[in-house]
Design a protein that fits this description.
single chain, two-stranded antiparallel ribbon, 15 helices, 6 strands, 62% helix, elongated
Length: 232
């Protein structure tokens, strides 16, 4: 079972690499040819061919199941293509499409993969869409809870691997009213996940931001208010 899970996890990573499944057959054949040059034992060669062929079939199945339109858009690294891909999702499932691809017992996060692979344009589109407020006749939709539940260390990830995406995330945690009253505009700050973690303990968000040593990041209105609430 563990080996099957490991193969599924490897297959999901190959989804991010955009590997054509047509190449697995020639790859297996090439590996078998190399082994035939090392040993003349037909049993060993056939056992190797059978084992590698079985692994290849499992990888191909995982790649085919995990190659969603969101992952394909990430490989193009285009905000426009990502918006088109997400637009196909039902409103209540948009966050799931962008945060989880499940094959068997293994899963991969399109958002995490876009950051890890350096496809920041796709990551920007995902973060903006997750943190956009939408509504229908039944409820409002805002993906902050889903985002921080799936990636409780998203602040650490962005400060370490993609600091240019931090303003995008922080801007998404602010809602500004379109209308003014007496020269003032109502503003809501969504600080819950920056203040406490899922266990109710103080979040390490400020510590991660401090380690980044970025004065522009610290001066962002969300971080300034967070510090005032925490220490004021």
């Amino acid at each position: 079972v563990k080996m099957a899970d490991d193969i599924s996890a490897l297959g999901l990573r190959h989804v991010g690499y955009a590997i054509p499944t047509e190449l697995f057959g020639p790859f297996v054949s090439a590996c078998v040819l190399v082994l035939q040059g090392i040993t003349s034992d037909p049993v060993a060669v056939e056992a190797f061919r059978w084992s590698l062929g079985l692994i290849a079939k499992s990888l191909v199945r995982t790649i085919q199941e995990g190659s969603t339109i969101v992952m394909k858009a990430i490989n193009q690294n285009s905000q426009l293509q990502m918006k088109k891909a997400i637009a196909c999702a039902p409103r209540g499932e948009r966050a799931t499409w962008m945060l989880t691809i499940q094959v068997g017992t293994q899963s991969i996060s399109p958002l995490a993969w876009s950051i890890e692979s350096g496809n920041f344009e796709s990551a920007i589109a995902i973060i903006k869409d997750l943190l956009s407020i939408r509504a229908d006749r039944d409820r409002y939709y805002y993906g902050a809870d889903e985002l921080f539940t799936r990636h409780p260390d998203i602040i650490k990830t962005l400060t370490n691997e993609a600091p240019t995406l931090m303003p995008v995330l922080l801007d998404g945690l602010i809602w500004r009213s379109r209308t003014t009253q007496f020269g003032m505009r109502r503003v809501n700050y969504y600080l819950k996940h920056l203040l406490v973690d899922s266990k109710g303990n103080f979040s390490k968000s400020l510590a991660w931001i401090g380690k980044a040593e970025d004065p522009n990041m610290v001066c962002h209105p969300v971080i300034a208010l967070l510090a005032d609430v925490l220490w004021g």
